[in-house]
Amino acid sequence: MQLCSFFSGKYANYIEAYVENRQAISSNMTSELRHVCKQLAQCSSDVYKQAVFSLLCRQEFSDTQNAVLKSADDFLWFKLSQIVLFADGQRSVSQANSLASLQKLIHDTYGEAHFQAADQPLLFFKLLLLSQQFEAAVSFLFRAQSTDESMDSLSIHAVHLAICLMHMGLLCVFAGEECICNPLR
């Protein structure tokens, strides 16, 4: 593999295993890689190497995050790549790399202020939509004001998106305490 030629000797097998096993590696390899990540954080200034190893072992590397993940798209791709999917019946040992934790990070921890949603409403909307926070995305888009002078608001787009998501069975609407999913079918 060409990708593996960039890494010396023993690290190539980690990348090969990652690629061959659908972005998953054994728990032994994960433990070894986490150890390597800790060593890299202490002795290496190569933030890109730290990012690759962090991605492989699904470990945070927030100290160097801004240097490598320069855009919201990079941030979202990296975080989505770290999500661990489990088959039915399996449980995650750590919920740190779950879709729910990413959703909470984007919506609650960072929120509109961090992503400058007032200035870039479509960016924050995109992050919500791509992290499967459909209700929050529609709600935000309905409230958002367009930065494009030719449009007054984005509410009409929110309504159209809500209709589409509802038709696809992806949007839940609350009526009092009851969640009504897909009432159009």
Automatic annotation (TrEMBL):
Give the family, as the similarity comment puts it: Belongs to the nucleoporin interacting component (NIC) family.
Where does it primarily localize? nucleus
- What does UniProt give as GO cellular component? nuclear pore
Going by the entry's taxonomy, the superkingdom of the source organism is recorded as Eukaryota
Localization (cell):
Nucleus, Nuclear pore complex
Organism listed in the record: Cichlidogyrus casuarinus
- What is the protein name stated in its UniProt record? Nuclear pore protein
What InterPro entries does UniProt report for this protein, alphabetically? Nucleoporin_int_Nup93/Nic96
Q: Name one GO biological process term.
A: protein transport
Asked if the Swiss-Prot or TrEMBL record annotates the protein with the keyword Membrane, the reply is yes
